[in-house]
Design brief:
The protein has 450 residues and is an alpha/beta fold. The chain has 16 helices and 19 strands. The structure holds cytidine-5'-triphosphate.
């Protein structure tokens, strides 16, 4: 019996898929089809698969060509399967020509001609019109954004707004955008959604005006510096049925999502302490160390360190205290936030100008989880126990600068196809982050006044 194997995502099942499977079946007597999991697609940079794994399996099943359907969920699995199932022929479409020649040592490799003029990507774009995105602000984060946006289908950066027209023009030239403007009407008229990357204190005004004009909003962290601002922004987004998302890239990264899932699974028992650190050394003259009102280590970095605390311990802490080391002008260069919960503790440590180990340590009654610096770009974490022979390291993917994950979730949110969004960053968590920023800034201001 000649055994054939092929793989694919088979998203929005189309004629190209049907023809591929039909011909693959004819190559032998028994056809095995590997369907990729969302997680695997995600980790190799295919971020906008629409149909669920079960739907995609069902589509393949319906053709009647597959004798067996398996799930592909990791790199290197193809070779494992070829050996495991005693495969004679490996086949995929001609868009992959040459890429799987290394398997020729184990079986025949056949590239079948790809069906022209159809692909899942094309169908996704037809089904969901491309979202036109406008950038507000042209600072450092804004510059890193377009490169990452290219990895997400269904969204395109078209316009940029900056009250300083020269900065807008320079940015538009760099990223080949159609519109650079300092006129808000022109800007909002040209887009469906905006990414706000302006100074922290200007966020809320842009958020409200964008929502008022029925635009979806992705806003850099910290999204709001006042609890009431965050509440009114989410209320307006809800009333207008629009997406409002706080862009803390870690929250949307697959490795961090997995880490939180593992921590919540009970494997380390009841969680009693979370310690999260993030410190950076930056030049003295940067905005973060010169902006007396909104600069400093906490406003700059605490969105990251507070995230695992709120996700694992919740937003109902009993008390929070801040301790800071400050410059003469009152800007904090090192801040520790101490949280007291009913049965547990947590610390968020941030530094700009003092360097420390920036790790995430989650301690429980049965063991602990350690994610080393830079844990906010979660590439892996270790689960540790008293009996160290049981320790396990889990490697996860974090591609590029990581913005692609939040952009991908933003697109899915707008399309209404993101199940479990609430698991990434809830409205309550975002509002609590604003509340903590507000408390910290008001205490710091009072201390300066003294
Ligand atoms: N395929 C094909 N003809 C097409 C599209 C896909 O023969 N027009 C083949 C691919 O070469 C692959 C299999 O179908 O062997 C599954 O492809 P998949 O990546 O799931 O589909 P695409 O339409 O290529 O998806 P995308 O646009 O997301 O890359």
């Amino acid at each position: 019996m000649k055994k054939v194997i092929t793989y694919g995502s088979f998203d929005l099942f189309h004629n190209g898929h049907y023809r591929l499977l039909e011909r693959a079946k004819k190559l032998g007597d028994y056809l095995i089809v590997g369907v990729t999991t969302e997680y695997y697609d995600n980790s190799r940079g295919k971020l906008n698969v629409v149909d669920s794994l079960l739907m995609r399996i069902e589509s393949v099943k319906k053709t009647g060509f597959a004798d067996e359907i398996i799930i592909e969920d990791h790199d290197g699995q193809k070779l494992e399967d070829i050996i495991k199932y005693g495969i004679d022929i490996f086949t995929v479409g001609s868009d992959w020509t040459g890429k799987f020649d290394f398997l020729k040592e184990y079986c025949d490799v056949v590239y079948l001609e790809r069906t022209k003029l159809v692909s899942s990507t094309m169908l996704r774009e037809q089904k969901f019109p491309i979202i036109k995105l406008g950038m507000i602000g042209t600072g450092r984060v804004a510059v890193r954004f377009p490169k990452e946006l290219k990895y997400v289908s269904g969204i395109e950066l078209t316009s940029v707004y900056n009250p300083k027209i020269d900065s807008a023009k320079k940015y538009a030239e760099q990223f080949e955008l159609g519109l650079a403007t300092n006129n808000k009407d022109d800007f909002y008229d040209s887009v469906d959604a905006v990414n706000i990357a302006s100074p922290h204190e200007t966020h809320i005004e842009y958020i409200m005006e964008a929502l008022e004009r029925s635009k979806h909003v992705l806003c850099e962290k910290p999204m709001c510096l006042k609890e009431t601002d965050a509440i009114k922004a989410f209320e307006l987004a809800k009333a207008k049925n629009l997406t409002l998302m706080e862009g803390i890239k870690t929250a949307y990264a697959p490795g961090f999502v997995q880490l939180i899932g593992v921590a919540r699974s009970g494997i380390i028992g009841n969680i009693r302490d979370v310690e999260a650190g993030f410190t950076k050394l930056i030049p003295q003259q940067t905005r973060e160390l010169t902006d007396l009102d909104y600069g400093g280590a906490f406003t700059e970095l605490a969105s990251y360190t507070l995230l695992p605390i709120l996700k694992l311990m919740g937003c109902n802490y009993e008390k929070v205290n801040f301790e800071s080391l400050k410059q003469k002008d009152g800007i904090d260069i090192y801040t520790k936030a101490y949280f007291y919960y009913k049965n547990s503790l947590a610390t968020a440590k941030t530094g700009l100008g003092i360097k420390s180990e920036g790790q995430l340590l989650i301690s429980g009654t049965k063991g602990y989880i350690l994610a080393k610096s830079p844990w906010w770009l979660t590439k892996g974490f270790e689960i540790c126990f008293e009996d160290t022979s049981k320790n396990e390291f889990i490697a996860t993917k974090f591609l590029g600068q990581g913005f692609r994950y939040e952009i991908s979730d933003f697109v899915k949110m707008i399309r209404g196809s993101l199940n479990g969004y609430e698991e990434r960053l809830t409205v309550e968590e975002s509002v609590t982050l604003a509340k903590l920023m507000e408390k910290f800034l008001s205490e710091r201001k009072k201390a300066i006044a003294i």
